[in-house]
Amino acid sequence: MGHSLFARLARGTGTALAIHIISAGVIYASQVWLARWMGSTEYGIYDYVTTVGLVGALMAGLGLPAAVLRFVSAYQTQEDWPHLWGIILGSWRQTLAIGLVASGCSTVIVWAAAQGLGNYARPLLVGIWAIPVLALVGLQREIIRAFQQLVLAYAPSLIVQPLALVGMATVWRMHGELTSTDAIALTLISALLALALQWLLFQQPLDVKIRQARPAYELARWWRAALPLLLFSGSHLVLSQTDTLMIGAALGAKQVGLYGAALKTSAWVPFILMAVNAIAAPLIAALYAQGDRQGLQQLVSIAARWMFYPALATGIGLAVLAEPVLQLFGPEFVAAKGTLIILILGQLVNVGAGSVGYLMIMTGHQNETLVVMATSALVNVSLNFIGIHLLGIAGAALATAFSMALWNIRLYGLVVRRLGVRPSILDAYRTSGSP
After folding, report:
1. Residue 408: domain span
2. Most buried pick, 104, 142, 162, 257, via CB within 10 A?
3. What is the pLDDT of residues 368-412, one digit of tens each?
């Protein structure tokens, strides 16, 4: 069983890992160039506004991206072409409409409060129109992922879009100064181009039976599934974005820029976690459904080793080379060295705990997971408020790292009690599931 699980995990992880490695490098390089061209203050405004756009896009999506992944897969299996075409078209139109309304209302609010927003006002007026685009990017990714087209699902938004952004920003820079407002506008244009390209590439080979089917809609059923998933995604977003938003409100754009550089650099530590989990998740569901606890333990032990050792090596390397790595963004970003090290430690706890989130969700314990995430999100907001006022961006890093450790440890305890498996790297030494 151990060798079989190892082979299945290895086959699937290859593609996902290649996409994530390439995308992580491209996205990181794009942020480095933008920071060097704009400086810490303008880059901080850019980072703050793009974070606002991500939060708005999540709200505009209303949980539909996660729901369509489930329903598209089900309709394909059942060969229910009318409902399949209906959820593709219906979710796209609803997301676009909600996103446009959200952007329109936000424009009125920002315009009315422009004087109090200072340097954020003009960039926000541009950036909030990224809400429908980013919402559609997330939705379309999950629709295509449900068709098991991983490259087409991820490459446009994670590789093509940042490459287009850097290309356009380079041309812009040749003709003058690059401001945060310019960078936000170029980000919006590049996202639109990637979205359109992805839709065209997805539509062309789509089965005629699907495209010619008369769309059928199960709106009530879709929304019943989507809204609880919105609460889960919202809690996770609060955990990941609260620090940036609160730093921007309390300390100003320059500190957002410094913190953003540290946060994006620390994200290298868990990047393999996403690649392994992308393949491990359906295997977890299958083994649980079969009642194979031994196989499930072997799987999570293999996954723990695969995730932790590269993460540990990356974390140590980034901590040792913190100053030269941060200096890539510009000399002033070296001030975030301590913040980077704190965030790295938090990410190592995250990876070391194992695939606790997927273990809970893929085995039907999503409600308990939601409670843990929501509670941790509230703790995160409270600790960020205290930490930022006492220690600045280092306080935000401590709050974020503690909150991350908290929800991982709490979910680990639930996994042990509910499933009888131990998924952490420490537990991996006690199992015989080594391939």
Report:
1. 224-435
2. 257
3. 888 888 888 889 999 999 999 999 999 999 999 999 999 999 999
